[in-house]
Amino acid sequence: MRNCPSASSRHDGSWGSQLLILGHHYQQDEVIAHADLRGDSYQLSQMAADSTECRNIIFCGVHFMAETADILANRPEKLQQRQGVRVQVILPDMSAGCSMADMAAIRQVEDAWDQLGEIVDTAEMIPVTYINSAASLKAFCGRHGGIVCTSSNAAAVLDWALERGRRVFFFPDQHLGRNTALKMGITNEQMPVWDPYADELGGNTEEAIERSKVVLWKGHCSVHQMFRPEHVHQFRQRIPGIKILVHPECPQEVNDLADISGSTSKIIRTVEQAPPGTKWAIGTELHLVNRLKKEHPEQEIHFLSPVVCMCATMYRIDLPHLAWAIENLTAGEVVNEIRVDEETAHYSLVALERMLEVR
Ligand code: 13P
Ligand code: SF4
Question: What pTM was computed for the model?
């Protein structure tokens, strides 16, 4: 029963609490309809961390999320509680990756760290990785006194890091790092951008590294970088009184013009709590904005960009792949299991546990 995905079977509930289907808010509706729980990256990691009875997680999200679920659901105390029985984490389509996560490879980060160490004391530099990164980068942070952040707790994590070190090395999303640090009073002059493809020092001078407070990795989300300042201007002109609500993965020029910038859960909360008749132009993934439109007909919701900005890799998780994963599980076969090796999981957990403690 391995082969081809078909849409013939559904999660009929017969698995009870043994199977948890997690769905990220950016998933398409027909997949979300089958999710036991939906959330943003932070909430989903907490759900995986808290799961007690579940033995299998089907993760309708992307690869780094499934890795995080594997690490948290199978951390030592959980394994002990289950007498060594692992939670099997399944990603219905292995090609559901994240282009941002792919912009920082562990070798590039290690190389950058070594080069930075020639200019400043890396014992006083705290590495912070966005949760949207490979487990190897989370492990790097765990090994070097660093931490993981999500878009919901990025400011608190930067505070945490700057209480422990003179500067931060933030990867892979330059925009989340910059937008968060700017709000904390750190200036762009104190935030050089490290280009892993530049010949030396990530394309920076020694002076720029010496005066840095936050060194930003040159990575971005291909979805959120599509939102432009002219989209904001056009909406403000067309619809007086409209409020612009964006994700901090959008570029600084867009964040600066927005009324509100916040994580996926903050965007949802903001819309839920707004009075009827509020007008919004929202700059985040298309499926979420369309769902908000459907769930809040009492408000006027627009998608901020005139072009389609959807996460193409999340979209690879479709009903046929989900059904295929469930059918195989029912037949006793685990397909597309995501399993992080023991050493990487150990050090990643160090950085993830710090993240879960910082709120
Ligand atoms: P959050 O779910 O943390 O808001 O991140 C958005 C995102 O890009 C997920 O890949
Ligand atoms: Fe990666 Fe952006 Fe897709 Fe999130 S929305 S998974 S950051 S490409």
Answer: 0.94
